[in-house]
Amino acid sequence: MDKKIIELKNMTKVYVQGEAELKILQTINLDIFKGEFVAIKGPSGSGKSTLLHIIGLLDKPTSGKYLLEKQLIDKKTKPNTLAKLRLKKIGFVFQTFNLIPRISALANVELPMIYSKLENPKKKAKQLIKMVGLAERANHVPNKMSGGERQRIAIARALANNPEIILADEPTGNLDSKTGSQIINILKELNQKGKTIIVVTHDDEVARVAKRIIEIKDGRII
């Protein structure tokens, strides 16, 4: 597990609001290795979700370097390049699920594969939904599913393009403790299969499952 998959060097994120500068992340130095299970933990407003969004190529750092599998990501990286990298290398699991409510669970899981022009997206989507234990719910729309079922479908969708990295932002935040444990167990199993898992959480129990905990406060790793 000595291959660096993510390298952040002296990274900052600053938002400018009129005359004021809001420093969200300050001098972040962080290496994450292939196959790790890492928890990023901190209170609300600490910068942990912003950090995850930068790692997930949904946002760009203001300064410093970000290397994703040795590829430099900075302010000059084109949106088209970021979109291709996101589609190929990163799977996202959000607290609010971010599923399309009007289409079936199966269609939600198929979508990333259709964008990637993969063959047999329906067949693979069915396999992924079966893997998260919801084969019998594949044709239901998300609005007719429980929170735990929706989060499992979100995990299946995150795996659609077989990404190296799974990013989960408070994946148990909207779930009861029993359902949350099921979601964490799925993430643990994925990590055992070789996926790099990065979970943002403020929950000590979720963080303890990780092999490494990174604590962040006021935009700094402490």
Short description:
The protein has 222 residues and is of the alpha/beta class. The protein has 7 helices and 10 strands. The longest helix is centred in the C-terminal third of the chain and has 16 residues, at 177-192.
Write the layout of secondary structure elements.
Blueprint (H helix, E strand, L loop, with lengths): L3 E14 L2 E14 L3 E5 L6 H8 L7 E6 L2 E3 L5 H11 E5 L10 H11 L5 H11 L15 H12 L6 E5 L7 H16 L3 E6 L2 H6 L2 E6 L2 E2 L1
Parallel strand pairs: 3-8, 3-9, 6-7, 7-8
Antiparallel strand pairs: 1-2, 1-4, 4-5, 9-10
Helix pairs in contact: 3-4, 3-5, 4-5, 5-6
Family: Belongs to the ABC transporter superfamily.
InterPro entries: AAA+_ATPase, ABC_transporter-like_ATP-bd, ABC_transporter-like_CS, MacB-like_ATP-bd, P-loop_NTPase
Keywords: ATP-binding, Nucleotide-binding, Transport
Account of the protein in words:
- This protein is α/β, with parallel strands linked by helices and 222 residues long.
- 34% of the residues lie in helices and 30% in strands.
- Strands 6-7-8-3-9-10 form a six-stranded mixed sheet, sandwiched between helices. Strands 2-1-4-5 form a four-stranded antiparallel sheet, covered by helices on one side.
- Belongs to the ABC transporter superfamily.
- GO terms for molecular function: ATP binding; ATP hydrolysis activity; transmembrane transporter activity.
Distance between the termini: 24 Å
Determine and state the CATH class of the domain at 36-54 and 86-221. Answer: Alpha Beta
Structural class: alpha/beta
* Rg from alpha-carbon coordinates: 17 Å
**Silhouette:** globular
Please summarize the sheet with the most strands: 6 strands, mixed
Low-confidence stretches: none
CATH topology of the domain at 36-54 and 86-221: Rossmann fold
Proportion in β-strands: 25-35%
